[in-house]
Amino acid sequence: MTPLSDGQLWSLACEAYGDDLPVILRSLLSAYERRPGLNNPIRVHRSVIGVDGFTALREALVTQRSNGFHQLDGCLEIREPLVWHLVRHLQQKLIIDGHAPASIRDQRFAADLGL
């Protein structure tokens, strides 16, 4: 399971940011710099991240005209480095804004340590 498919992260983000989540995701996408090379795609399923999170992510990807994704039936296929970027920064925002429980903080800390 990838960090992006963690329903808890997306549920918290939807609850904490509501209608502002697509704007936040667009900001994260605009800060992303793709490195050259081939990367594996990861499927992000609506049933895992929830309807609101899926809608916000799809809206942000379409609005930013990101070419790093494909929409399939009930899921988005996104390149792995972009997934990593979105998750890391969304975790960071939740932590800084005081919305992250210990599990999200621990996941972020473990990633910082390379675990």
Order of helices and strands: HHEHHEEHH
Largest sheet: 3 strands, antiparallel
Helix content: 55-70%
**What is the oligomer described by this structure?**
single chain
Keywords:
115 residues; alpha+beta; 3-stranded antiparallel β-sheet; 6 helices; 57% helix
How would you describe the overall organization of this protein?
The chain is an alpha+beta fold and 115 residues long. The chain has one domain (3-112). The protein contains 6 helices and 3 strands. It has helices spanning 7-17, 21-30, 46-49, 51-63, 80-96, 102-112; strands spanning 41-45, 69-72, 75-79. It has a 3-stranded antiparallel beta sheet. Helix 1 (7-17) packs across helix 5 (80-96) and helix 2 (21-30) crosses helix 4 (51-63). The protein is globular, with a radius of gyration of 13 Å.
TL;DR?
The protein has 115 residues and is an alpha+beta fold.
Q: What is the secondary structure topology, with strand pairs?
A:
Layout (H helix, E strand, L loop, with lengths): L6 H11 L3 H10 L10 E5 H4 L1 H13 L5 E4 L2 E5 H17 L5 H11 L3
Antiparallel strand pairs: 1-3, 2-3
Helix pairs in contact: 1-5, 2-4
